[in-house]
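Consider the tokenized backbone below.
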């Protein structure tokens, strides 16, 4: 997240302290409703991604917000695809999330194409959502519904 090209495609503020990140990650680890995974090349962090509950309401416990970031040197090398594959497997096959949503800046064509490949659809535009490089910019809302919505298995007699 510290790389300028990566940071400008997020809603994060620059130069967060290690303590800020440690608190955020500790809270995610302690919450069984969240997952945060990383991609490593040797001992070097090259990407991370997570699914985070929309909020504490029981009425939206089937919804998660997705975030993903990959170091610039690793763009186009399948890192984001593998992070997405792992997160969506967890969401679909282990915790039964029905809806995953995300925000993406309209000029981030590479990320939009990735999300579309994984079944995310455009749902809307948030006008002037974020301040980036001194200007207010829009964000696109994309979401994906579970491809095989969870069902209750039929009971077997016997």
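A designed sequence for it:
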């Amino acid at each position: 997240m510290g790389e300028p090209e990566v940071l400008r495609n997020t809603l994060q503020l620059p130069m967060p302290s290690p303590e800020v990140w440690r608190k955020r990650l500790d809270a995610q680890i302690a919450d069984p409703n969240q997952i945060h995974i990383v991609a490593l090349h040797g001992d070097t962090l090259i990407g991370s991604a997570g699914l985070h509950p929309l909020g504490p309401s029981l009425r939206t416990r089937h919804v998660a917000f997705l975030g993903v970031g990959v170091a610039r040197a690793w763009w186009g090398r399948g890192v984001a695809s593998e992070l997405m594959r792992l997160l969506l497997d967890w969401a679909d096959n282990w915790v039964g999330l029905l809806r995953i949503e995300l925000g993406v800046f309209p000029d981030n064509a590479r990320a939009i194409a990735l999300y579309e490949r994984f079944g995310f659809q455009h749902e809307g535009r948030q006008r002037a959502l974020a301040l980036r490089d001194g200007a207010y910019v829009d964000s696109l809302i994309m979401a994906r519904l579970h491809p095989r919505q969870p069902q209750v298995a039929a009971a077997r007699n016997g």
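The longest helix spans residues 79-93.
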